[in-house]
């Protein structure tokens, strides 16, 4: 590889990271992907670039990975809604962001796209939220959202105080192929497509194809303003509408029973206690119920105007996600 042309993507084995790396490689870029030794390699088969092993929290590993890098996409994150020790999620995401950004500064990386989340933005009751509504750590619901707020504020501070050349992108809820883990939303799709979600709570989310999110990352690298944040979203969709769309794609009857959230809190508590024993992530958590109290709707108008960002209809993303899950043997 010609050192001057290396693009480093962290979290390259993950859902969004693999999408970004594949898009870059398809454009002819020379991609270096950072992956932990313990990460699943489902999305790395025939990876079209150089793979290096390392932990994004490790300053030494990051200094080595950053050698000769011109552009950086820091996509890696501890994306868990639940953990035995919730503060572990906060520590991991802050430590990895600090190590990656400090290594990038030391290496003289020319330009950075940092993958944050709409989790760092306050919901706007009655209309979609946007970049003008940043949350404080105290306002964030749950450890994951708090971790992303803490990490994003660190990046902003480094931009202001240390000249970090970073643009921030805030994906909403990506869906589509290669959701190997799967993500919390991917789990909902799998359960619904398998006929295991006969009811729903009243909530809403913003769905976007993961490849459109990847395109948004690349546009942010080319056109984004340093220190600015850009929502990379798709369409606002009520949960009941999403479940009905899943049912239509797989030929099942859509759920029609709406369950109030309050009676589900004891069940979520029990699920979490079971998870502490089994080590398996609970499907229903206390934080997910708290989040469901708000419609998580967002506007991508800023990214559309400044980056030329566009997102396809969410049903296309949903269909591709279900097809991938089926091919991977994840549907009942």
UniProtKB/TrEMBL annotation:
Keywords: Membrane, Transmembrane, Transmembrane helix. The keyword Transmembrane applies. Gene3D superfamilies: NAD(P)-binding Rossmann-like Domain. Residues 7-233 form the NAD-dependent epimerase/dehydratase domain. The chain crosses the membrane at residues 6-31. It holds the Pfam family Epimerase. PANTHER family: NAD(P)-BINDING DOMAIN-CONTAINING PROTEIN-RELATED, PROTEIN YEEZ. This is NAD-dependent epimerase/dehydratase domain-containing protein. It comes from Sphingomonas glacialis. The lineage of its organism: Bacteria, Pseudomonadati, Pseudomonadota, Alphaproteobacteria, Sphingomonadales.
């Amino acid at each position: 590889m010609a050192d001057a042309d290396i693009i480093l993507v962290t979290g390259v084995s993950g859902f969004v990271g693999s999408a970004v790396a594949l898009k870059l490689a398809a454009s002819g870029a020379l991609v270096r992907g950072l992956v932990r030794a313990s990460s699943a390699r489902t999305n790395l088969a025939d990876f079209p670039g150089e793979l290096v092993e390392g932990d994004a929290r490790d300053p030494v590993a990051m200094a080595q990975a950053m050698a000769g890098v011109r552009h950086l996409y820091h996509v890696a994150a501890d994306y868990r809604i639940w953990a035995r020790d919730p503060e572990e999620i906060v520590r991991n995401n802050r430590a990895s962001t600090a190590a990656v950004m400090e290594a990038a500064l030391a290496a003289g990386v020319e330009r950075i796209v940092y993958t944050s989340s709409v989790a760092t933005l306050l919901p706007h009751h009655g209309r979609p939220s946007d970049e003008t509504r940043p949350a404080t750590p105290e306002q964030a619901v749950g450890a994951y959202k708090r971790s992303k707020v803490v990490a994003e504020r660190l990046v902003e501070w480094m931009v202001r105080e240390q000249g970090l050349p970073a643009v921030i992108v805030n994906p909403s809820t990506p869906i589509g192929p290669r959701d190997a883990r799967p993500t919390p939303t991917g789990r909902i799709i799998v359960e619904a497509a398998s006929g295991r979600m006969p009811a729903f709570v009243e909530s809403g989310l913003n769905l976007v194809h993961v490849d459109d999110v990847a395109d948004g990352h690349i546009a942010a690298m080319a056109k984004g303003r340093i220190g600015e944040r850009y929502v990379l979203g798709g369409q606002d969709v009520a949960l009941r509408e999403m479940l009905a769309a899943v049912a239509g794609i797989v030929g099942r009857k859509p759920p029609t029973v709406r369950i109030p959230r309050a009676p589900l809190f004891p069940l979520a508590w029990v699920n979490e206690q079971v998870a502490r024993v089994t080590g398996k992530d609970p499907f229903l958590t206390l934080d997910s119920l708290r989040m469901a109290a708000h419609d998580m709707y967002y506007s991508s108008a800023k990214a559309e105007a400044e980056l030329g960002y566009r997102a396809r209809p969410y049903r296309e993303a949903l269909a591709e996600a279900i097809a991938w899950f089926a091919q991977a043997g994840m549907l009942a």
